[in-house]
Amino acid sequence: MKKIEGGITAAKGFQAAGGAAGIKKQGVKDMALVYSEVPCVAAGTFTTNIVKAAPVKWDQEIVYNHPTAQAIVCNSGIANACTGEEGYGYCRKTAEAASAALSIPEDSVLVASTGVIGKQIPIDKIAAGVEMLKPQLAATREAAATAAQAIMTTDTEPKEVAVQIEIGGKTVTIGSMCKGSGMIHPNMCTMLSFVATDANISKEMLQKALSEVVPDTYNMVSVDGDTSTNDTVLLLANGLAGNPEITEENEDYKIFKEALFEVNKTQAMHIAGDGEGATALFEVTIQGAESKEQAVTLAKSVITSSLTKAAIFGHDANWGRILCAMGYSGAKFDPENVDLYFESAAGKLQIITKGVAVDYSEEEATKILSEPKVTATADIHMGEATATAWGCDLTYDYVKINADYRS
Fold first, then answer.
1. What pLDDT does residue 188 have?
2. Does residue 206 have a pLDDT over 70?
3. Together in a domain, 335 and 395
4. Which of 218, 238, 273 is a domain's end point?
5. Are 266 and 257 in contact (CB under 8 A)?
6. Of 277 and 236, which is predicted with more confidence?
7. Is 58 exposed, middle or buried (0-12, 13-18, 19+ CB in 10 A)?
8. Where residue 389 sits, what CATH number does that domain have?
9. Is 229 annotated as a binding residue?
10. Mean pLDDT of 365-391
11. Predicted confidence (pLDDT) at residue 327 exceeds the cutoff of 70
12. End-to-end alpha-carbon separation of the chain, Å?
């Protein structure tokens, strides 16, 4: 597997476009279109929030009950959440517009929205946006980058990744774009991820692969503990790589799943590192757990601790907050048998052993915690299981951004 320069158009047969449809301020990119030259099998995972946005309900119907999909229409600025039957009807109208423009079936159009909850989307602008974007569709690197920019809300940068693998003597590519910065606590944020591959794989195995990698990637991210109404991961596969079709859990499936994991892990880290107002990506690894479930619970408890996140922002090795967060997680462990380390590009330092502070240098700890990526590793010495979660520091700017979000 190798990472390559690219995004949503990296795989054969995929085109994209992005532009300003007038949903946001004048001239700001706010709408993206992704299109496959041939029908795709589709897979998806979605928010577990009981309050589900209209596009989530629409996409669940398409992914679960229709054989193929061929296009994705995404707008930013308005989430089309808590909008009732009218909002769901606008999903249908969006699909109708894309169907007419692209000459594809209405039920092969997936839709996604992100932004303010509770407002109806301006469907006339959305429909006009589809018409605007259709002639701009291209398979170029620039087209992918423009589409990635168009789906951003409070993100400070577009998030793209692409990898290549070899399956059955054929080069298979997976490309992705995603957005997410706040309201991030996936349980499949406001998180949207679109993944496109030219792999030849059955719909059943595509869904299986996605469902197997999401728990250890997107579901291990938290910026602020809020699970969005709009969380959506969509995966399209058009088969144009020409590899023998993957229809079972064989070696080809394993290779594909590993590459898909790498793409989604990279994007999960991009989201965490670009958390609203964040200055650092905060990675937490639990080692020596007796079960994966225990490790996951402990890791996620630490990255969602506001006090721990604030300490990371202050470059303060306040390890007591980490041990405290582990203690109220609900997972059982012996606090007097925990070793804790901080690590970054500036070095690695053990902070506690057997639950008690070691004689470490506060100056060295501060230096380690001042890097843009900081890792805390806790070994609880109970078994062989491990889990890693990603979050970010909690800064003044997070409050400012969310206090002013609608205005």
1. 38
2. yes
3. yes
4. 273
5. no
6. 236
7. buried
8. 3.10.20.340
9. no
10. 97
11. yes
12. 45
Total tally of structural domains belonging to the chain: 2
Residues 109 and 199 in one domain: yes
217 is in an annotated binding site: no
240 and 113 within one domain: yes
User: pLDDT grade, residue 298 (50/70/90)?
Assistant: very high
Question: Residue 346 is part of which domain span?
Answer: 281-403
Longest dimension (CA), the chain: 69
Residue 179 annotated as binding? yes
Question: CA 128 → CA 15, 134, 323, distances in Å?
Answer: 19, 10, 54
Among candidate residues 190, 197, 266, 297, the one labeled active-site is 190
378 phi/psi in degrees, rounded to 5: -115, 125
Report the predicted TM-score, pTM, of the whole model to 2 decimal places: 0.88
Average pLDDT over residues 46-66: 92
305 with 238, same domain? no
Q: Is 153 annotated as a binding residue?
A: yes
Q: Is 190 a catalytic residue?
A: yes
Q: Identity (one letter) of the amino acid at 353? A: T
- If residue 357 lies in a helix (H) or strand (E), which one and from where to where? strand 356-357
What does the alpha-carbon distance between residue 376 and residue 372 come to, in Å, rounded to a whole number?
13
Domain boundary among 235, 251, 273: 273
> Residue range 312-319: average pLDDT?
95
Clarify whether residues 141 and 255 are in a common domain.
Answer: yes
- CATH code, 129: 3.60.70.12
